[in-house]
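User: Okay, second chain of the day. Same drill as before: sequence in, structure tokens out.
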Amino acid sequence: MIQVYEATDVGLVRKGNEDSADVFEPATYVVADGMGGHVAGEVASRMLVDSVRRKLTGTAAIGEDALCEAILAGNQAILESEKDHPDYKGMGTTATVMHIEGNEACWAHVGDSRLYLLRGGEMKQVTRDHSYVEELVAEGTITEAEAKVHPQRNYLTRAVGVQPNLTVDSGHFPLEPQDILILATDGLMKLVEDEEIRQVIESAPGDPAKELVMRALNAGGNDNVTVIVVVYDS
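Assistant: Same drill. Structure tokens below.
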């Protein structure tokens, strides 16, 4: 059995919501955080989510390759749309997609939205941010605390819809009863620490996704925020 909670909010500063998300059968979840001037970010994230749904709906066997191909289809769709809409030039989006098949989860990822696994009271970040500050942290040039306030913390090194040759990260892992998976855009992580996310997930009496969104809003809400929480029980 799988329980799913989903919530999104424009935040307290932005005029529009450039995040997009979808939950569809069979057991597939996607979040995307768009970027670009005017409405282009909203267009890019929605195109990515729609492309993933079209590519995977009806697919007999969904694994890492299928998830990667779905993101690449979204990448191509966004690039093609820019040819007909010059005002969309430069738009792009993050993409984090997960699928559950039996007792295994597989995922594919581009950008700085994230997938977390909460198991036995310990929360692990499954995906790796494709960002400039993440590279600096990996090199040991700056700390994770410094990365949170770095002036270039929003600079992505990889995004969907920016270039034809896109590399998509992917992976898979076995699931255990009571595992909790969290997919979220960076509007959550910028304002709510991982430890607080863990505490909310474990203690929220109602909808943990809505509670996490409210925590981001209460902390300033300076970005769109989208969260999907998946509770797995074999």
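The first helix runs from residue 40 to 56.

User: Thanks, on to the next one.
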